[in-house]
Backbone:
């Protein structure tokens, strides 16, 4: 019956649906832009493991116990010790190219910096001494690609003499520029430590490098690379390390920027929603009250025929819910068209942001549900005018 | 709850079973039914004793403002009386009496809703059809609302009623697209579709031209066989035909500072229509008439 009545007063129904669409489309667009831009930025931040990286400032001596304890922190995903920055370089020599020094990073299976580039099997591979990954910068300078072979050379000064240790290297993969913009070589922790040892004047028998005999002392590392499981964990890990007296460097500024952006958008959206939504609610409520006033005679007749106030309210509310549903369908169709236009129009020019405006299917469904509830609730305001309808009014013209 | 002692007395009375004298065919029983209205000199309607039997055709006459509508509303279970000695209703074919006065005092409006849905049919002055439903949907609505009303019976009654009332060609139309007389015939079909125990018609012919009004009355009388019919009208001529049991509401001043007293009583004198004052008579005139 509600449907028949809805269709009968189609002009009113159409107008109320349209006015709700007019309210919903801008709301969805603002929300879509927030989710689109902030979502893209967040995804990029998340996707680039650099942003989850935490490394100590300055040079200190970290013992294995420190690392063992640190990796048990619930926010810690990956941890690898690093050698002294000053000794963590290697001269790279490839045929036909001028040699140059690359920065050494020690790596281990599961390194987040490599996770995007490598397939899971390669990611879990323990690098052998002569196996390395190189950054795109290195690969371009030396004309390297996966499988290329080259020579690594480590130098030290002994008195007036330069001494070198050499080893053959094999490129296992190239890490793209957006992950490591510098000239980096990822090698096993062993190779990094051996390089450091050689620079300190020790012999490295495994590689046939000569020098002083080194005792079997416990290795001590001066740096590390720590990765948080997620962006929010970065700050917690930072504070944790600060508590241990370790000052660290994080991408907190970038993370904060995105969070602030998200926050500002949320505030703007909420403010808009409160103001515009309040207005829309009031207008929907007044529309429903008007409807009850307009339908008063019919409602009174229905009451006279023995339909309870509750069912009359359901009758009124179901029409409002239908308006909400139709408005949600219309508004979301319009929104999707608008989002597509915005994305194709700005998408190219914004570069860093793939999607200017988008909403997940879940949010679209949620928005539709909210608007149906919203309309139904607004029509509930008509209850007071409904409540004082007397069935006796149905008996005669008032 | 009204704390007046009279209520307590009524409460005691209604607890006892209805008068055994009441015939099996009686569906509505009123005794000492009182309704007062404030404002001006005030007004007090008293129904000392009134019964409505199955298939009985009853006409309430009285001048404008005499209280026909008030009484009809009380019978229609939409207006609460101020007090009642007995005010009970028994649907046709049911053994159980519903103590309407007790239901009013308890505020159990759900029972009234159920009774109105199943056992009452209404014909309003202007039809009271729902503007957003077509004629067929309007007519079948009470049958759809009556719990357990058989589909087959609904179809049968629908066919018979629409044929008898001559509205079979209007079924798909909206009420706004048909004439006032046609609407009234649709209203009759709606009031009867669900085989109610009691059909109430409030000035059903007031907005009709005389020939149409006559036809509507005829149809009403012909169609209300089992159902009792109560018609309120100020067109006395139309009901003084011998086919109605006529009850008249007479108003008289209640004396200094007292409300106008309206009493409902059967019209004993079945005088020919011509002897009665034609058309509307002002309340003042009828008051002075009844005083003499």
Residues:
């Amino acid at each position: 019956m509600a449907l028949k009545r809805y269709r009968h007063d189609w002009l009113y129904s159409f107008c109320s649906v349209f006015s709700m669409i007019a309210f919903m489309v801008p709301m969805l667009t603002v929300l879509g832009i927030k989710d689109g831009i902030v979502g893209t930025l967040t995804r990029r931040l998340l996707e680039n493991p650099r942003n989850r990286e935490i490394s100590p400032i300055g040079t200190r001596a970290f013992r294995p116990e420190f690392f063992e304890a640190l990796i048990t922190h619930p926010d810690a995903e990956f941890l690898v010790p690093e050698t002294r920055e000053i000794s963590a370089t290697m001269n790279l020599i490839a045929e036909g190219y001028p040699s140059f020094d690359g920065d050494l990073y020690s790596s281990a299976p599961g390194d987040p910096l490599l996770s995007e580039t490598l397939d899971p099997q390669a990611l879990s591979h323990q690098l052998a001494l002569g196996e390395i990954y190189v950054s795109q910068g290195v690969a371009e300078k030396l004309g390297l690609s996966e499988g290329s072979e080259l020579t690594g050379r480590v130098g030290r000064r002994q008195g007036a003499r330069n001494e070198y240790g050499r080893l053959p290297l094999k490129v296992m993969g190239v890490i793209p520029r957006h992950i490591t913009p510098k000239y980096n070589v990822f090698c096993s922790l062993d190779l990094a430590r051996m390089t450091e040892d050689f620079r300190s004047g020790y012999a490295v028998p495994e590689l046939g490098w000569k020098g002083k005999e080194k005792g079997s002392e416990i290795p001590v590392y001066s740096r590390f690379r720590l990765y948080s499981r997620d962006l929010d964990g970065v700050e917690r890990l930072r504070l944790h390390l600060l508590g241990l007296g370790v000052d660290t460097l994080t991408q907190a500024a970038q993370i904060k920027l995105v969070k602030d952006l998200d926050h500002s958008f949320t505030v703007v959206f909420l403010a808009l929603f409160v103001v515009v939504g309040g207005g829309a609610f009031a207008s929907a409520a007044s529309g429903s009250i008007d409807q009850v006033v307009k339908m008063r005679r019919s409602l009174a007749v229905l009451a006279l025929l023995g339909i309870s106030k509750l069912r009359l309210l359901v009758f009124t509310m179901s029409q409002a819910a239908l308006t909400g549903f139709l408005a949600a369908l219309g508004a979301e169709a319009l929104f999707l068209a608008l989002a597509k236009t915005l994305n194709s129009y700005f998408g190219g020019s914004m570069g860093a942001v793939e999607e200017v405006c988008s909403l997940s299917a879940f949010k679209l469904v949620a928005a539709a549900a909210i608007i149906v509830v919203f309309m139904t609730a607004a029509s509930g305001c008509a209850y007071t005018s409904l409540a004082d309808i007397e069935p006796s009014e149905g008996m005669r013209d008032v | 709850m009204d704390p007046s002692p009279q209520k307590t007395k009524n409460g005691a009375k209604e607890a006892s079973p209805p008068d055994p004298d009441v015939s099996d065919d009686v569906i509505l029983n009123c005794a000492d039914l009182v309704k007062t209205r404030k404002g001006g000199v005030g007004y007090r309607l008293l129904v000392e004793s009134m019964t409505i039997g199955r298939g009985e055709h009853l006409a309430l006459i009285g001048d404008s403002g005499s209280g026909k509508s008030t009484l009809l509303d009380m019978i229609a279970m939409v207006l609460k009386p101020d007090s009642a000695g007995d005010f009970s209703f028994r649907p046709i074919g049911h053994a159980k009496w519903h103590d309407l006065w007790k239901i009013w005092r308890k505020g159990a409006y759900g029972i009234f809703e159920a009774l109105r849905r199943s056992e009452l049919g209404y014909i309003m002055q202007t039809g009271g059809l729902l503007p957003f439903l077509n004629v067929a949907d309007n007519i079948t609505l009470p049958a759809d609302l009556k719990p357990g009303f058989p589909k087959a019976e609904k179809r049968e009654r629908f066919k018979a009623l629409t044929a008898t009332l001559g509205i079979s060609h209007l079924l798909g139309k909206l009420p706004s697209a048909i004439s006032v007389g046609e609407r009234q015939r649709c209203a009759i079909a709606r009031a009867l579709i669900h085989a109610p125990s009691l059909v109430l018609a409030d000035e059903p012919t007031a907005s009709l031209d005389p020939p149409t009004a006559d036809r509507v009355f005829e149809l009403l009388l012909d169609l209300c066989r089992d159902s009792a019919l109560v018609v309120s009208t100020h067109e006395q001529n139309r009901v003084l035909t011998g086919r109605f049991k006529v009850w008249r509401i007479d108003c008289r001043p209640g004396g200094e500072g007292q409300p106008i007293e309206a009493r409902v009583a059967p019209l004993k004198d079945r005088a020919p229509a011509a002897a009665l004052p034609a058309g509307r008579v002002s309340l003042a005139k009828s008051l002075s008439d009844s005083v003499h």
Summary: The two ends of chain A are 24 Å apart (CA to CA). Chain A has two domains: 2-46+257-395, 53-250.
